[in-house]
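Meet our chain:
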Amino acid sequence: MRGLLIGLSLCVLAATGRAATDDVSDHRRTLANLQAELVEHRAALKDLSNQERSILLTIRSLDRALSKFEAEGRQAERTVEQLRQKRERLTAEVAVLTQTLDGARARLSRRWRTIYAEGQGGAVRHLLSSHSFEDYAYRYRYLAARAQIDRALLAQVETVRTDKAAREQALREAEQNADALRNALVEQGRIVELVRAERKDAVAQIEQQKALGVRAVTENVALQKEVQRELVSLLRKAPPRRRPPQGVLKAGLRRPLSGAIFRDFGTVKDKVTGAKVTSNGIHIRAALGTKVLSPGDGTVVYTGWLRGFGQMVIIDLGEHTHVLLGHLSRSVVKRGDLVARGQVVGYSGDTESMDGPQLYLELRRKSRPINPARYLRSS
């Protein structure tokens, strides 16, 4: 039974080791594929003057590819942490098995010395020196039991030795996999910084070159009309919030993060094109990766990408009131989640933003936008 359990343990350990190796290989393959995808989008980014290519679509495609790349990196970081924990566990197990093996070998060594001292044919002499049949039977049973103990001791030494070797191999593989992933993450970080710098330069180029600026603003104005229709349709399809509160706006909304408002609610005339550009919300300056808090108690009715707003979370506050949080680097909630006022729902970013890292905050009452600034509270 003991041998069967140890055998099963070794099989499970080997399967776990193979699974970990497969996970690492999958991560590395995925990162390589995403890196190739980024190369394609970066090439488009450097060709903004191409009249056949949409400027906003180029930025949007790059942001989505970059987001997937960073998400895979976060998953790889979690795998590295799992490998670290596995390494600690295996190190402790190897130490215990080493101690067990040393003890078993010491007992086996003492037993060999005893057998050596008895000399060749010791067991036979022990039997032949019996004084009676009863004494012979007693000595035979003793020798048989001693032989069984010796076999068990030999089996224990072998199984513990095999188990220890398997865990040492698994430990080496965990260390190699962790090192490989850490190296991949270092390279990934370098690529992310490079791509973000290129993206920033491209946006600066759009702002500096009048022709590109005109195209970008023209595209944005046209996009706004399409997105507004999509947004109204999305909110009308959203399931009603459970247990809606009373007077949701009377209580005010918690400010989702600190930062200066650099674009207000309302319509302004673009200085370059003269086109009317409408902002149905406010734009708050925020460092990349700042925690974004829920402005109130509510139900998440949408998480994902929305054209012109990047990654977005929409929360139903009840009473036909919705708050929209856009340009996120990522969200940490999913559709249907109940969220509390002040709960982290995502992190600020620059997805599909032409103004750097920020948070877009929009408030809608019965699908119509209203100025959220008047309802914001510090807590």
